[in-house]
Known about the structure:
The structure is a homodimer. By secondary structure, chain A is α/β, with parallel strands linked by helices. The first copy, chain A, has four domains: 2-87, Beta Barrel (Barwin-like endoglucanases), CATH 2.40.40.20; 91-138, no CATH class; 166-413, Pyrimidine Nucleoside Phosphorylase, Chain A, domain 2 (3-Layer(aba) Sandwich), CATH 3.40.1030; 419-501, Pyrimidine nucleoside phosphorylase-like, C-terminal domain (Aldehyde Oxidoreductase, domain 3), CATH 3.90.1170.30. Helix content of chain A is 41%, strand content 19%. Chain A has a six-stranded mixed β-barrel. A four-stranded antiparallel β-sheet of chain A has the order 12-15-17-13, sandwiched between helices. In chain A, strand 10, helix 12 (299-316) and strand 11 (319-326) form a beta-alpha-beta unit. Chains A and B meet through helix 3, helix 5 and helix 10 of A and helix 3, helix 5 and helix 10 of B.
Amino acid sequence: xxxxxxxxxxxxxxxxxxxxxxxxxxxxxxxxxxxxxxxxxxxxxxxxxxxxxxxxxxxxxxxxxxxxxxxxxxxxxxxxxxxxxxxxxxxxxxxxxxxxxxxxxxxxxxxxxxxxxxxxxxxxxxxxxxxxxxxxxxxxxxxxxxxxxxxxxxxxxxxxxxxxxxxxxxxxxxxxxxxxxxxxxxxxxxxxxxxxxxxxxxxxxxxxxxxxxxxxxxxxxxxxxxxxxxxxxxxxxxxxxxxxxxxxxxxxxxxxxxxxxxxxxxxxxxxxxxxxxxxxxxxxxxxxxxxxxxxxxxxxxxxxxxxxxxxxxxxxxxxxxxxxxxxxxxxxxxxxxxxxxxxxxxxxxxxxxxxxxxxxxxxxxxxxxxxxxxxxxxxxxxxxxxxxxxxxxxxxxxxxxxxxxxxxxxxxxxxxxxxxxxxxxxxxxxxxxxxxxxxxxxxxxxxxxxxxxxxxxxxxxxxxxxxxxxxxxxxxxxxxxxxxxxxxxxxxxxxxxxxxxxxxxxxxxxxxxxxxxxx
Amino acid sequence: xxxxxxxxxxxxxxxxxxxxxxxxxxxxxxxxxxxxxxxxxxxxxxxxxxxxxxxxxxxxxxxxxxxxxxxxxxxxxxxxxxxxxxxxxxxxxxxxxxxxxxxxxxxxxxxxxxxxxxxxxxxxxxxxxxxxxxxxxxxxxxxxxxxxxxxxxxxxxxxxxxxxxxxxxxxxxxxxxxxxxxxxxxxxxxxxxxxxxxxxxxxxxxxxxxxxxxxxxxxxxxxxxxxxxxxxxxxxxxxxxxxxxxxxxxxxxxxxxxxxxxxxxxxxxxxxxxxxxxxxxxxxxxxxxxxxxxxxxxxxxxxxxxxxxxxxxxxxxxxxxxxxxxxxxxxxxxxxxxxxxxxxxxxxxxxxxxxxxxxxxxxxxxxxxxxxxxxxxxxxxxxxxxxxxxxxxxxxxxxxxxxxxxxxxxxxxxxxxxxxxxxxxxxxxxxxxxxxxxxxxxxxxxxxxxxxxxxxxxxxxxxxxxxxxxxxxxxxxxxxxxxxxxxxxxxxxxxxxxxxxxxxxxxxxxxxxxxxxxx
Lengths: 519, 519
């Protein structure tokens, strides 16, 4: 144990960490990355990771530098004397090592580990090793169940009592898909069911469900607001993080999954189902889009994942149906928060006019929920969903939801803030569209500023199977600044967002290529 | 691109990192953990990782907080205006992901990645994912060779020209082993060979070779000093890090391997052989101690690793012989830097009196080097090594080496700073020692303060096969403070450093246990 003066470091770093001079650290046997306990005169304390610095300038001996993250947990005054002592490595750090070396943890071990992730006990390096081990070893269903339950239980758990709640969720990965909730939620709520839809913001995509809903109304609802408003108007579309639903999911995404571009399959299950468990959902439909450049590329994988979702749902007492959908090209004709909100609003107001891909998909999924919730007889769900949309009742319900969440129910599609900097890309040749690249559309929309710039995104004029003439518009890019528009245009030019082919598939000019045909 | 005022953060964090306010970050599309380029008015620049803070207090808008690590690379003044723009993820970060997902990299990819580790391009989270992937996927011999070469080449490479250099290295893992170099180096040098022994400090053990040598003489030699002194007196025992030999090894150990307690086998190869390659070693003997609670527990594993060392040596043009040694209990009778230095010095001064385990092992390994270096005919190396030790020539050479490195050649064993706080543990029963636990001895010695407290450590009175009487001393603990002595005693009591058994192996009092014998 050593007594040191507190030196407040005016910055947050996302970890509970303090900095010691090497001389002080060696005096008490503290190695870099060891944990130390900081104890104030009144006995209050906090455990933090130790950085050790050899420089007397940036880390003077006799002082302990504390980052703002530590001060948030334990108020420490500049110059105050605290005692600092090394503490044993927490059990959860040993469990990270066990998962790496042995591949498997017990449910109790998973719980303990997730609790420590939530409380900031583990370092970013430990979290990275854990997620990498989940990627490489995977997790069996007992571990996935424990991950899911503990990720839900460390946060807020909504309680809907006896109310039968339903929900729809997508594993994602296809641009344009964020708007289906804006059709499904009002349809299902209009039929009298309760659908407390909670979701996350986009991580790698140009628009998450809440990014898009936020164009129409605030999405940062408190836990009690989600319950009350869902019961009152039948549904909400809310940001899971603002209600502290499954908070560990966000920690792992921000600290490890996003920086490493890793998305272990077991965390896809736990991420989605922990949010549903925390939101008090009792029955749900899980959409798995499949196709080239989607998150799930093969039907075989989609079926395997679907079976796992159903089994996990059984274990959690959430009745789950899986819908495998076509995800080989963007859903609908617009990608980006404001563009997708506009597309959804136009479909609702026009009582069902617009892109068939988004309308048919939404009606099918809504229909499944109507049947699961007992609002429609089996086999009649989709028909009822269509009637609700085409009668205008879905639009009326959406107005109620927007108003309940604090938005303007009279909002019109033309009011929405679409980026004013635009560029049109045209077809180089006449022919048929054989592919619209999910990956290219995502990269173009993100380069244009989506999801942060709400008005940024892409309009898709031509989809698979459409005939286009040379010079005709195929996509249009929207951005909020000229520089981002140009960046997006550059991306578009370097990729092939829309592939057009004529009936002749290849033309050879070089005699060495395609020899048999030419000679 | 956004223009921001520099705010110098007076602390080092071990990463090239800056902190932005969320508003500024979102304006230019910077996500947490993205890389940004900081450009000064004169065009000089640095790339750093971006942290994003929502708090206006700790990270005011309009400012970019730069840690001292960044200022070291690019001098930035408080209040200076710089432009900040997001840059694409470096190729090496994609290679980390490739190693995780696909398991294998090309030699060119390994080189690029190691270069970026050295230059601080990769985040700690990326390094953790890389090491975890090396632990789980392993690496094939092409990758190991590339790791080894690139780890050596990013640092200093010593050039001994035509001089035939030899060396001995151990994979480690057995307490008490750090002192064998203090016998082998002077024996080999006394025979006229050149042995530039470079090594690292202890990571998990109570004493590394340089921790122990440092008790007798400084070990932080410059590259040219290692070459000159080795040529002049025949050998040195120097700290690899001070000469910048294989610096990436230390980075990975400090940032990932030590905090996670991971030690991937492929990095054992690359760590040792990159240091030998950088040190200009041409022929070497590699010691693999095997036994319960050693780093390598089975003879089968030792043979496999030995074959890999030989193959890697061939690829690097370092002629390598492997010696598999007994590592089932500590080597010699003392553990800890000063205690081991004392034990070695006593053996040298007494011309070969002392613990047989350390003397026989050192003579065998020295003998192999004498044969490999052509100083002794095949089959006569160990005999020559013994003659050099018993004639006092080894001690004379050690005095020269100590003096050359800047120590006192007249140093006496009784001058060495052994911890004055002592506790003796005695046998609870009479019988034979059936085990001395490596793990327990390591934990006790480290709890007592080793390797940082040079005088801390353990004396082992009874080794395997020895007869002890109840009440007789079995180990003695040395520490530099009473509190560390007590901590070490607590560890000793909670473990079983010395297991004593009588001829009767079990006595049953409970009738339900060992039923067949009792009834």
